[in-house]
Design goal:
The chain is of the alpha/beta class and about 400 residues long. The protein has helices spanning about 10-25, 40-50, 70-85, 100-110, 130-140, 150-160, 175-180, 190-200, 215-230, 245-255, 270-275, 290-295, 310-315, 325-335, 340-345, 355-370, and strands at about 1-10, 30-35, 55-60, 90-95, 115, 145-150, 165-170, 200-205, 235-240, 260-265, 280-285, 300, 320. It has two domains: about 1-170 and about 355-370, Rossmann fold (3-Layer(aba) Sandwich); about 190-345, Glycogen Phosphorylase B (Rossmann fold, 3-Layer(aba) Sandwich). Helix content is about 45%, strand content about 15%. It is globular, with a radius of gyration of 21 Å. Residues about 380-400 have low confidence and may be disordered. Pfam families: Epimerase_2. One of its GO terms (molecular function) is UDP-N-acetylglucosamine 2-epimerase activity.
């Protein structure tokens, strides 16, 4: 059996790699070995438990207020020992984190082939998103197999000189994970979520964490949301707040005293995904939610100036709104008051996956090792979205509190 070392370190990576671990476990040809850097700790552990993944190696590198230098050094030193002991035939990394780049670099130092899941996403600006854009580009330079989620991502790789024979269009594995956990009869582990949903308000789900948004950009976003809640009595904000103190302190200050803004600890993935399925609208600076929310029929306002996921913009499932207070406020109000604009976004076709990305990655690995044909590439179709709550029809603004 070929030994595949799967390296990841954050919650988003774990979510997207869990389906890959699953298909490899059931393969007769591969033996998966999981190494986590734990660049994130508690949020990562939630996903590992949900998907029943017990890491073979856990570097546990996370420290309070850690810098990129510290994460890079600790991950590199830890993975040296893992690779020496595990001796894999191929290393799989995912996406755009520091763990991703360091995992690929470590494998390169041992002259072990690298497969890059979710390859080819680009903004063209090396500082946005930071440091993710360069993590992706550097990983691409080191990778031997490139699992691009879309045809557009594959074309970006080809423009950079990547051999087309080494590129496989698979769809995004996050859709595989989402389909595994979102259910109409789902029982939330956090009982407060039932209360938020049963109040009959239109729920705006919010996440923020990007380094380039720390400081005044985040404060402007939060002030815009405060104004929205004050103006619309039928709106509530549910905000699982990132554990980073920079994010937390700004949110707690600006939303103080608003009883329809619910600041929560980060939610378990299954709770979060099922809450998203029942929300009205998503505001985020995350990359992954630009892929997940459209699969659930939820419009996404992206709190960034650029995105490495232009397919969503072209499809109309997301809109870039930046972080300026007036722009954010205006775009949220538009979707709360313009029913036609809302439904244009909610009903657009999601270009990111059909739930079969992990199978295509398995088939691509079999092809690479001479054990099967080249898999057919993913091509977007009209996919049925999963939506468990009809958006409220009342779009009139409320009085200020």
């Amino acid at each position: 059996m070929k030994k595949i070392l799967i390296v990841f370190g954050t919650r988003p990576e774990a979510i997207k790699m869990a389906p890959v671990v699953g298909v490899l476990k059931h393969s007769k040809y591969f033996r998966p070995v999981v190494a986590v850097t734990a660049q994130h700790r508690e949020m990562l552990d939630q996903v590992l438990e949900l998907f029943g993944i017990v890491p073979d190696y856990d570097l546990d590198i996370m420290r309070p207020r850690q810098t990129l230098f510290e994460v890079t050094v600790r991950a590199l030193q830890g993975l040296e020992k893992v690779l020496q002991e595990a001796g894999p035939d191929l290393v799989l990394v995912h996406g755009d984190t520091t763990t991703t780049f360091v995992g690929a670099l470590s494998a390169f130092y041992f002259q072990i082939p690298v497969g890059h899941v979710e390859a080819g996403l680009r903004t063209g600006n090396k500082y946005a998103p930071f440091p993710e854009e360069m993590n992706r580009r550097l990983t691409a330079a080191l990778a031997d197999l490139h699992f691009a989620p879309t045809a557009r991502a594959a074309e970006a790789l080809k423009r950079e000189g990547i051999d087309p024979e080494k590129i496989f269009v698979t769809g995004n594995t996050v859709i595989d994970a989402l389909q595994a956990v979102v259910r109409e009869d789902y029982q939330f582990t956090d009982g407060r979520l039932y209360r938020f949903l049963e109040e009959g308000k239109r729920v705006i789900l919010v996440t923020t964490h990007r380094r380039e948004n720390w400081g005044e950009p985040l404060r402007q976003v939060y002030r815009a949301l405060r104004r929205v809640v004050e103006q619309f009595e039928d709106v509530a904000v549910v905000f699982p707040v990132h554990r980073n103190p920079v994010v937390r302190e700004a949110a707690e200050e600006i939303f103080a005293g608003l009883n329809r803004v619910h600041l929560l600890e980060p939610l378990p993935y299954a709770d979060f995904a099922n809450l998203m399925a029942r929300s009205y609208l998503v505001l985020t600076d995350s990359g992954g939610l630009q892929e997940e929310a459209p699969s659930l029929g939820k419009p996404v306002l992206v709190l960034r100036e650029v995105t490495e996921r232009p397919e969503a913009l072209e499809a109309g499932t997301v809109r870039l709104v930046g972080t300026a207070e007036e722009r954010v406020f205006g775009e949220v109000v538009r979707l709360l008051t313009d029913e036609a604009a809302y439904y244009r976004m909610a009903s657009a076709v999601n270009p990111y996956g059909d739930g079969q990305a992990s199978r295509r990655i398995l088939e691509a690995l079999l092809y690479h090792f001479g054990q099967g044909p080249r898999p057919e590439p993913f091509s977007p179709k009209v996919l049925a979205s999963t939506s468990f709550c009809a958006p409220a029809q009342n779009s009139s603004g409320g009085e200020e509190e």
